[in-house]
Specification:
Elements (H helix, E strand, L loop, with lengths): L1 H24 L1 H23 L5 H17 L11 H19 L12 E3 L1 H26 L11 H4 L5 H5 L5 H12 L5 H20 L3 H18 L4 H21 L5 H7 L9 H7 L2 H11 L1 H8 L14 H6 L2 H4 L23 H7 L1 H18 L3 H4 L3 H15 L10 H17 L5 E3 L1 H4 L5
Parallel strand pairs: 1-2
Helix pairs in contact: 1-2, 1-4, 2-3, 3-4, 3-14, 4-19, 5-8, 5-9, 8-10, 10-11, 10-21, 18-19, 21-22
């Protein structure tokens, strides 16, 4: 099995070498090679793992597909990448594969199992609901309003209150947890239970809309979809279609509520299109489409601006920022939160791929070690999917990590305090309500054996 994973790394290395050479000759050809390679690696990973929802396949797809899109250089400010940037990008994938191939010994379920009851799981859901809605209400009172009903273009950015906002955005955990609840306890549920869970989910889904957060809405939909596909793998195609439609509709609606005009975005994101013909301009300077392209592809251009140009490394401040933020060290020791600004290919475009933080902290060595560790974590979570389906909290944590991998081209969610907060919150609630290292669903709830 390990040889299969290493073969993916070898294919990626050879394919990338060809793609990079073509990129310098013709960037469109290079882009097409990387896109084709992403699809091929994804299908190979699916064949090896036997399921579509594995970390190796997902990372292969999103990493090289978005690199391929970026190679097209559709934005006028994009430039040819230096060879060091390419080295970091390809090495990141290879090290991820190496880490993924390092398999720890499988954990054996403890003989001292404590099964999760419906009563405990309802209490678990109620706590998430109360914390999230409570955080939203407190922030609304402190800020004196809700961004959805504000005409201020920056209201969504100014809404969060330090510390409290972590609880508000935990709303994205409620829907996926509800899916687990419905899956395992539907035989014990009454009509009133269904009604309550539907109303509660409507309220939780209203929070990202009320605070005009596209990222939170997308996180809710994707994490829920991952949980659903883990529990119901037969519905893959239908789920992908529904998720794509839901995210597109949500993106469009929330974007319109941010009060950002096309003129503002054209100026802020430097979208001009002067280099295109009239026909091309009609397509490529459509502001909203170009904005989406930039979110998908231009994060690597920000990375390229910094590779080889960082004068002072931050030695862990960025990679371990969640620890600094969540422990309050950035307030107790302000110097820990002070970091030099990173370069951007456009001043207001501030997103970077997953390897930016380790590179800014430790250079190319940091990228290698960091991606090796991420690969090891993902490989561990992919070890035994059948056993995983019996452990609901692990399903949620895996879905959060999968979400982080899906958006690895856009941001480093592993170095984001919110991601760490989600995991810590789930762990604390798990210990409080279930108080067991082995969190399995009882036979009576499932109607099947747990072994």
């Amino acid at each position: 099995m390990r040889k299969n994973y290493l073969s993916l790394a070898a294919i990626a290395g050879v394919g990338s070498a060809i793609g990079i050479m073509c990129y310098y000759l013709n960037n469109y050809v290079g882009g097409c090679i990387f896109i084709c390679m992403s699809l091929a690696l994804f299908m190979l990973a699916k064949r090896i793992k036997g399921n579509i929802l594995n970390f190796l396949g997902v990372f292969s797809l999103v990493w090289f597909f978005t690199i391929g899109l970026s190679c097209f250089m559709l934005h006028s400010s994009q430039t040819i990448w230096n060879i060091q940037t390419w080295l970091c990008l390809v090495m990141a994938y290879i090290m991820f594969c190496l880490g993924y191939a390092i398999k720890p010994s499988k954990n054996r379920d403890s003989h001292n199992k404590k099964f999760i009851t419906k009563k405990n799981f309802v209490a678990f859901l109620a706590t998430i609901f109360t914390l999230s809605l409570g955080g939203f209400i407190v922030e609304s009172v402190i800020r004196g309003g809700i961004p959805l009903f504000s005409s201020d273009m920056a209201s969504y950015a100014d809404f969060g209150v330090t510390g409290i906002h972590y609880f508000t955005v935990s709303s994205c955990l409620f829907l996926p947890a509800s899916i687990i609840y419905l899956k395992f306890f539907h035989k014990e549920m009454r009509k009133i239970d269904y009604l309550i869970i539907i109303i509660a989910n409507i309220i939780m889904l209203a929070i990202p809309i009320a605070i005009v957060s596209r990222q939170l809405l997308i996180a809710t939909v994707i994490i829920s979809s991952i949980v659903f596909l883990t529990l119901f793998p037969k519905y893959t195609v239908a789920t992908i279609i529904i998720v794509t439609a839901a995210m597109s509709a949500g993106w469009i609606f929330i974007t319109t509520q941010r009060n950002q005009t096309d003129e503002y975005l054209q100026s802020a994101l430097a979208i001009y299109g002067d280099e295109f013909t009239d026909d091309d301009k009609a397509i490529l300077t459509n502001t909203r489409l170009m904005q989406v392209y930039m979110y998908l592809a231009c994060n690597y251009d920000n990375l390229n601006e910094n590779i080889g140009n960082i004068d002072e490394y931050t030695f862990g401040k960025r990679t371990f920022f969640p620890v600094i933020a969540l422990t309050g060290l950035k307030y107790a020791t302000p110097s820990l939160g002070e970091m030099p600004n990173l370069s951007r290919f456009i001043p207001v475009f501030n997103t970077y791929p997953i390897i930016m933080a380790p590179y800014a902290d430790f250079g190319i060595v940091g990228v290698a070690v960091y991606m090796l560790l991420i690969g090891m974590i993902c490989g561990y979570l992919d070890m035994d999917i059948d056993r995983l389906r019996k452990r609901p909290i692990t399903i949620l944590i895996r879905a959060i990590f999968m979400y982080a991998i899906i958006f690895s081209f856009f941001s480093n969610w592993f170095a984001n305090p919110t991601t760490v907060f989600y995991v810590l919150l789930l762990y604390i609630l798990c210990r409080f309500f279930f108080s067991s290292k082995v969190l399995t669903i009882s036979n009576s709830a499932k109607g099947e054996n747990v072994s």
